[in-house]
Structures are given as structure tokens and as C-alpha cells.
Design a protein that fits this description.
Outer membrane lipoprotein wza fold like, 4 domains, elongated, alpha+beta, 6-stranded mixed beta sheet
Length: 411
């Protein structure tokens, strides 16, 4: 019967143990040195949420054709704010509204034409009074023509005159045209054109209002707030509602709260205008060393950089570089005097700009309160150099501990 051998009863020679011990220590030391050299030589290869402050600042000065990198100052914040205010309804549409009393006739409208002729009536005679629906007022003759709906030709058909252009003209202009063409045919003709049904001069009100509707424009020339009130008002809080006006190919949006507080933006509406009430349609994206990486909606009147950071939970103390607060934005070409010229532009003609705020400077907190974020901005907070060092230290720790454990085991 074969006997078993107890291997644990045997001891390795002391010289072999010593050799293995020295070898393990040497390997661990070499591993640490190698890791340190590789790590220090290539810290950029460590995991990160985005570029460092140093990389972004260097890019701003080296990219050909001018990627715009701007340190935000109180002057820059004021300049951007004043430009945004100048892009409201008053600037875009203020000078093009109709004047009170001007109601333009359009295709689909129904009108009534009345013609008076002084005695003796030479064109609209007494013999034809019953047939024409004429009535006697004093010694004059009044003839009311059958109501007419403006067709695609945009014209009215008037007896003894012919076709008269009506589309796009006010009732007073049509009256003057008919009266002028009746001269020499009727005795001192007087003409009154009355709008019976307005089917063309309409404003469409949709979105976050109580009743989506079409508002007929009248001679009192309805304004923006009139249209919103006629639709039942906004269903959302005023400071969270954006009003958008589309006229032809131009679309401009403003906060409803701003329109109410600034009467100049309560503009006169025109036929065909589309008024849209939107609830919090604006947003920015937050990335990097913030308390939360997310797409954040904000109110129509805007949100400052300070408010945005507050909603995100501030900066991460263990990661954030307070000198590296960046806002990436596509600006209009005339937003500022760009430091790099000529400016690089997108296919839409917008300028890529990086705004930087250094929160290590106490004065920058005032700047952060006045610098307003815009729709589709990207807010990025870079990692501090110490955070990268911490990552490297953690990497060395994960490599060194197994080696040290091995050495201690072999002792």
C-alpha cells in the first residue's frame, strides 16, 4: 500500500526564501516606478469627463480662423444682455403694425356696398328703387348692392363701374375708388363699403392658452395681449411662459412676463400672425464636475449662470476647477467684437464661442449673476489638476497593493 507524503513537513531552504523575497520586493519597486513614469508621462490617458482648463485655454489661442474664447467681465455681460433686449417684438415688428381704423379686405371676406346719389338721380333712378333696394333719405337716393364675398381674384363687381380691386385694400380706399369711377355717371356719388364678415384678417392663437382660437382683427387694431386675453389667457405661470410671434418668415420669442411689464413689446398684430404660448421651451445642458449632469429646462425670462449652478447643486468640491467654468454657445456674428478674426462660422452663419468664468475671483460671482444662459447652451465645469492627481494616486494604489501583499505573504 502506497504511503502519503506530508509536503508541509518539508521546509524550503533559507537561501531560496531569501531570493524569492528580494525578487518580489524588486519586482514591486520596479512596478511602482514603471507605473509612475507611465502615469506622469500620460496623465491625459486617465478617465475624465472632458477637457481640462489648460486644454481649453490653449485651444482658444491655437485654433486657426478663430475659435472665440472670451473671459466674461461685467462689460461683456452687460453687452450681451442689452443686445438680447434689443431683439424683442418692438424691434422686429413694432414699426409694421396697422394703424387704428385700417381694416384690410382679403379673400374670403364678405362686404356690402352702399351708393348715394344726390338729386336729381341720373344713374340710380326712382324707377329702379324697388328693384335695387334703394331708399329715399331726404332728396337723395341710396342704393344697397347685394353683399359680395371676395373671391380668389380679389375683386368686387360694381354696376356701371366694373371690377374693383379689393384684396389688400382698406374699406376707405375701396370707397374712394368706386366714387371716383362713378363721377360723370352718377350725380355727386357717395360710397360706403361695410365689412359684414371678416374671414381673412385673423390672428391664430395656439399653445398654452385656455382656448386655441382664431381672433378676427377689427378697426381698433388688436394688440398681442388682446389676442392672448381673447384666448382665455395663459394656462401656465406668466414667468414660465414664452410668447412666440410668427409673421411671414420671421419668428421672435419673448417672455410673457416681459411683454406685460414693457408696453413697447405689446405690438399691434397683423392678419396672418401666429401667436404661440410655450411653457418652459428653453434648456441648457450641464456636463463635467457639476452636482448633476443633465439637460435643465428654465423659465422664459432666462436664467443666470449663478442660478444654473445652484440648480445643478453647485460644483463638486472633490473634482471641480473653479477657474474652469465654461459656457459653449453658437452666437450671432454681430453679438460681440470677436478677439480672433476672421471668426470661424457654422453653415448657419453662427460663431462658436467659449465663455469662461473664473469663480476663484470673488468679483466673478457678481458676473455670474448677470451673465444669462441662452437656449441650447452647454455649461461645462472642468476637473481640477488635483483631481487628476488623485486619479493617478488611486491607479498606483490599485497596482501597488497586490505587489506589497505578495511581498508580505512571502516573508
Amino acid at each position: 500500500m502506497r504511503s502519503t507524503t506530508n509536503i508541509s513537513a518539508y521546509r524550503l531552504p533559507q537561501w531560496l526564501v531569501t531570493s524569492v523575497h528580494h525578487c518580489a520586493k524588486s519586482c514591486a519597486r520596479s512596478l511602482l516606478i514603471t507605473a509612475a513614469v507611465v502615469g506622469l508621462a500620460g496623465c491625459d490617458s486617465l478617465p475624465t469627463s472632458g477637457p481640462s482648463t489648460k486644454v481649453i485655454l490653449s485651444q482658444g489661442s491655437t485654433v486657426p480662423a478663430g475659435l472665440q474664447l472670451i473671459d466674461v467681465t461685467p462689460q461683456i455681460a452687460r453687452q450681451l444682455s442689452s443686445q438680447k433686449l434689443s431683439q424683442g417684438f418692438a424691434t422686429a415688428f413694432g414699426g409694421t403694425g396697422a394703424t387704428p381704423g385700417d381694416v384690410l379686405v382679403g379673400v374670403g371676406d364678405t362686404v356690402e356696398v352702399n351708393i348715394w346719389e344726390a338729386p336729381p338721380a341720373t344713374l340710380f333712378g326712382v324707377a329702379d328703387t324697388a328693384a335695387r333696394g334703394a331708399s329715399s333719405i331726404g332728396a337723395s337716393r341710396n342704393t344697397t348692392l347685394p353683399e359680395q364675398t371676395i373671391g380668389t381674384s380679389g375683386q368686387l363687381n360694381i354696376p356701371f363701374v366694373g371690377f374693383v380691386r379689393a384684396n389688400g385694400r382698406s374699406t376707405s380706399q375701396i370707397e374712394a375708388d368706386i366714387a371716383q369711377r362713378l363721377k360723370g355717371k352718377a350725380n355727386q356719388p357717395q360710397v360706403l363699403v361695410r365689412m359684414l364678415r371678416n374671414n381673412s384678417a385673423l390672428v391664430t392663437v395656439v399653445g398654452e392658452v385656455v382656448n386655441n382660437s382664431r381672433l378676427p382683427l377689427t378697426a381698433r387694431s388688436e394688440k398681442l395681449l388682446d389676442a392672448i386675453a381673447a384666448a382665455g389667457g395663459s394656462r401656465q405661470p406668466l414667468h414660465k411662459t414664452t410668447v412666440q410671434i410668427t409673421r411671414g418668415t420671421t419668428t421672435v420669442a419673448m417672455s410673457l412676463d416681459t411683454v406685460i411689464r414693457n408696453a413697447q413689446h405689446n405690438i399691434t398684430l397683423q392678419a396672418g400672425d401666429i401667436v404661440t404660448a410655450l411653457y418652459q421651451p428653453l434648456s441648457f445642458t450641464a456636463l463635467g464636475a457639476t452636482g448633476k449632469n443633465d439637460e435643465v429646462n428654465f423659465e422664459a425670462q432666462g436664467i443666470s449662470l449663478a442660478q444654473a449652478l445652484g440648480r445643478l447643486g453647485g460644483l463638486q468640491d472633490a473634482r471641480a476647477d473653479a477657474q474652469g467654468i465654461f459656457v459653449f454657445r453658437l452666437e450671432k456674428p454681430n453679438a460681440l467684437a470677436w478677439p480672433n478674426s476672421p471668426a470661424a462660422t457654422t453653415p448657419e452663419g453662427l460663431v462658436p464661442v467659449i465663455y469662461r468664468v473664473d469663480l476663484k475671483d470673488p468679483a466673478s460671482f457678481f458676473v455670474a449673476q448677470s451673465f444669462m444662459l441662452e437656449n441650447k447652451d452647454l455649461l461645462y465645469v472642468s476637473n481640477a489638476p488635483a483631481a487628476e492627481l488623485q486619479k493617478f494616486a488611486n491607479l498606483i494604489y490599485t497596482i501597488a497593493i497586490p505587489a506589497i501583499t505578495t511581498v508580505n505573504t512571502l516573508r
